[in-house]
Specification:
Length: 335
């Protein structure tokens, strides 16, 4: 059923490849891989790795929560406690919690890479550009906030972000092929005019490229088996990663209006990218490249959908309907 739905979407050229898995902590209910790694390319397979895009964000959120458990930082620490250069800015009162819940006041959707072509210049632009709204005043999805979370986690521990992700997420959860790029065996993303070629195995997000590919908002690649494994771990309560109380705090709703947890998105009704058929307490995250991971804690189910919907161009929004139809159908799977 799910394979037929996704095969039709491929025929409509929404993406060249898709992989999916729906199941519980005890096993898989439906899974598969279809299509080609790029149009006219080799078949996508079990070992093909997908650019997770913003699904990187909750992984980094888990790292931050794990560090808070260990006393390396507090969720209520102000930004300058770990990044002192922010002390004399309008961002000095932003807390770790506000960064995690997208209530920091930092803007979203800002293509800083267009005008700030080096890592130092881009980070300085984040530091010095005035906030459009005061911290805590509203929910605005902001990749800049998770860029800062990645920097903050590294500063608090003296450890590079990729090592922190390995230590606190991929190793304990058993995700051996998940990591930051560049990677081999990747599913292609965009035919990028800026880079002059079809992007394969390098992070799609341009701000992440300027930052070197290892950052808090995007950059992770993973095969289907690893993402479904993470889904099973989360559906079973996240025990290898976090204490029960910490996990519960991460997935609780911390905002008014748009529902945001700590690094996770709740089920907004209407307006959820995965439709409204899932349980009200479900949580997850989507990625711009066409990826998503969603969990229903009450039912103990996870839902993984991986596509390259930005291949060869990002302009179509057809993935929005595919995501909703996929989750509407997946919820009805018996088991």
């Amino acid at each position: 059923m799910l394979g037929d739905l996704l095969a039709r979407a491929r025929e409509e050229r929404v993406f060249s490849a898709a992989a999916w898995s729906v199941g519980t902590a005890d096993g898989v209910l439906d899974r598969g891989v279809l299509g080609t790694r790029w149009w006219g390319g080799p078949p996508a397979g079990e070992h093909s790795r997908w650019d997770l895009a913003s699904v990187t964000k909750p992984v980094v959120g888990i790292v931050v929560a794990a560090l808070a458990e260990r006393g390396a930082l507090s969720l209520d620490d102000p930004l300058p406690r770990h990044l002192p250069s922010y002390a004399a800015t309008d961002k000095a009162s932003i807390t770790v919690r506000q960064l995690l819940t997208h209530t920091s006041g930092l803007p979203g959707g800002t293509p800083l890479w267009r005008t700030h072509g080096t890592r130092d210049a881009l980070l300085e632009a984040i530091r010095t550009t005035p906030l459009p709204v005061a911290p805590g005043s509203r929910v605005e999805y902001s990749s800049q906030g998770f860029i800062l979370l990645g920097l903050l986690a590294s500063a608090a521990t003296g450890t590079p972000l990729d090592d922190l992700v390995a230590e606190y997420v991929t190793t304990p959860a058993g995700l051996p092929a998940t990591g930051f790029g560049p990677v081999a065996d990747a599913v292609a993303t965009e035919d990028c005019g800026w880079r002059g070629h079809v992007v394969t195995g390098q992070v799609h997000d341009e701000n992440a490229v300027v930052l070197g590919g290892i950052c808090g908002h995007a950059g992770l690649f993973a095969p289907l088996a690893d993402v479904e494994r993470l889904g099973r771990v989360l559906a079973d309560g996240a025990a290898p990663l976090l204490k029960p109380a910490t996990h519960a705090e991460m997935i609780a709703d911390h905002t008014t209006g748009l529902r945001r947890g700590l690094g996770w998105q709740g089920l907004d009704v209407p307006g959820s990218p995965v439709g409204v058929a899932l349980e009200p307490d479900s949580y997850g995250h989507t990625g711009f490249t066409g990826t998503s991971l969603w969990v229903e804690p009450g039912r103990g189910r996870y839902y993984v959908l991986l596509t390259n919907r930005v291949h060869p161009v990002r302009t179509s929004d057809a993935i929005a309907g595919v995501r909703r139809r996929f989750h509407d159908a997946a919820v009805r799977l018996p088991g």
